[in-house]
Amino acid sequence: MKILLLGSGGREHALAWKLGQSRLCSQLYIAPGNAGTADCGINLDLSPTDFENIKKYCLELAIEMVVVGPEEPLVLGIVDFFANAPELAKIPVIGPTAKGAQLEGSKAFSKKFMMRYGIPTASYREFDLDNYAEGISYLETHPLPIVIKADGLAAGKGVMICHSYVEAMAEYELMLQYSKFGEASRKIVVEEFLDGIELSVFILTDGKNFLVLPEAKDYKKIGEGDKGLNTGGMGAVSPVSFADNGFMKKISDRIIKPTISGLQNEEIDYKGFIFIGIIKIGDDPFVIEYNCRLGDPETEAILPRIKNDLVELFSAVASQQLHTIEIQKDKRTICTIMAVSRGYPGSYEKGYPITGLDNPISSDSIVFQAGTVKEEDMILTNGGRVLCVSSFAETVGDAVLKSRKVLENIDFDGIYYRRDIGFEFL
Ligand code: AMP
Predict the structure, then answer these.
(1) 109 and 116 in contact (C-beta within 8 Å)?
(2) Ligand 1 centroid vs 356 CA: distance in angstroms?
(3) How many Å lie between the centroid of ligand 1 and the Cα of residue 57?
(4) pLDDT digit string (tens) for 107-126?
(5) CA atoms of 265 and 268, how far apart (whole Å)
(6) Would you say residue 157 has pLDDT above 90?
């Protein structure tokens, strides 16, 4: 089968690595990919949101399946675009329709969805310029901290946790009056702050059936000890010890099953991943957010733990036969550590040569590239998050040490990574 994978990050390198291992994949193309994905297939100079050109390539290359990495093409309706083009309608696209992608694309949509199906989440209100004054009164009596979220996609930056009323009022005004996130903050959600420990849960669904993939915990803060600015993710571990059978059953009964039946009830055609951001309060799970794709860097920690053939899983999604498959997980632990460029998540420079990628490493470790580009014989940094290392071990501590050991032999100007990923599980 000829497969086209859309995206260019570490998540896509992990997907490409896993798709490339499938006995069902005869040729993999990645658009646009990075220097790492070029080792798994052929990179195409093609934007994941340029649907017309994607169509052209799919027809020319006789693509038989499209796998979508990032959320943007999904929210923009790539699945609907394929379904509505007669020449493309037979090509399965792994991902939800634009309506389904609203679970991530609109916080207001996802909150209403959770309310309709009794899915536990933080209490909230929705505001825009039409009920602006009411929002001010709401904020004035809301307990601190106050969570303010832009409704739409804001490149992972649209959530503000405000610890004072002054800050909350300022954010409220910036988002609604001054379009801080453009169209994405025309509407906002004001939410109760949930205090607990976070967990990322991943579901693959064909719209009727679902499989629960390995769970992960990610580390968002730039600094060790979870200090400093938020990033796209500095590392992850999988499995997560507190996600035991009892807790996962609560997630399944209270969150996953009502989510799948809610989607069916609303006639939303959802064939793809659902990433559920969970917060554990006491012994109970609450939903912080839905995403309509896999997370990064969680993908780099969970995909190597899945023993199934990924193309077989995706084919079962397309034919709605997921109930015939059981997910097989490697019981070992993975720790993924992300190496970033100096300055990230603020401004940083690109174009520095990366050395040490050819060093021999143990079969327990994998290097996944994110912001990299190949120029002549060199691989250069090309983003804030540059590459990550995922390592298998029997314990979190050993997995961390193995990933760190690999990173010690990789270098680029301004390399930085957290040495304390998984610290609370040691
Ligand atoms: P999101 O962009 O929705 O993933 O949110 C980013 C991060 O903000 C989450 O991973 C949480 O750490 C935090 N967050 C979002 N909503 C809440 C909430 N209601 N209470 C506490 N933390 C939250």
Answers:
(1) no
(2) 36
(3) 38
(4) 999 999 999 999 999 999 99
(5) 8
(6) no
